[in-house]
Amino acid sequence: MKTNILLTGIIALCLLTSCGEKESQEPEAKERLFGVSFQTMNNPFFVDLNEGLKDIIDARGDRLITLDAQWDSLRQKNDISDLILRGASVIFINPVNWEGVKGSLLQAKQKGIPCIVVDAPVKDKDLILSTVASDNIEAGRMAARALIEARKPAKVGILEQSINKACIDRVVGFREVIEQYPEMEIVDVQEVKGTTESSRPVMRDMIGRHPEINVLFAINDPTALGAISALESAGKLQDVLIAAVDGSAEAITAIKNGKMLSTSAQFPREIGQAAAQAAYDHLEGKSVEKDVKVRVELITAKNADSLLAH
Asked: Alpha helices of 158-217 — where are they, by DSSP H?
């Protein structure tokens, strides 16, 4: 009798512990880690692109680590190495140097981590899963057409950035259209870092050496805003028509205030969302397009109000 009571107690104890333990050990969904390395976060464009990535990643219950290279190729290399060590599922890269990033791409590939490039392409496309970017050549063409329509003939200046493929493509598109018009003479091309601070002294130098310049193409909105500051200080803003690329709120405000002619608007949040969706498609075994182009749209005084509202 005692034996039966003891046996019954042991069975009851097993039912209370073992079965309950099995229920508590149900596997939970594991949070995925994603990482992105930007050229800079000192530009509203990249802040919006990052938000686009987060829209998709946060909705899936996963986590995004955002790193700012501050226009430093070495810093970006170290940031990507850190993301690889953390075991990121996918790394999004906005390269500072479209050729110099190759070592980081090779390192990620060796670890089996796919890379998706956003906004600014890389030279070694075979090392990445996909490029998601605006049609930068068309953005440059749009800027050229706007300037030609507004002022012809003209003496043209260009503020470029030759290590950034997105910026290279914008200048390619701009030149493609401008050079069809002999009366649109390119008289000076200067290198900038793509920031307001870097373009201000370059613009001062350009108009000091070429006071005849009356049309300017800037590779992005921060560059254009720095040029505006330099031209205002020199009392020459009213003499120079400026076109740029980005579509930032600051540039649209400048257009409304008569300080800029146009900006070729990109849609960075859409770029981020498309890149994040491509990452999940790949992780789920779906095919991913190698080259995804996101729309661009010209903003002038005619449509600035409607686009600023967005």
From this structure: 165-178, 196-209
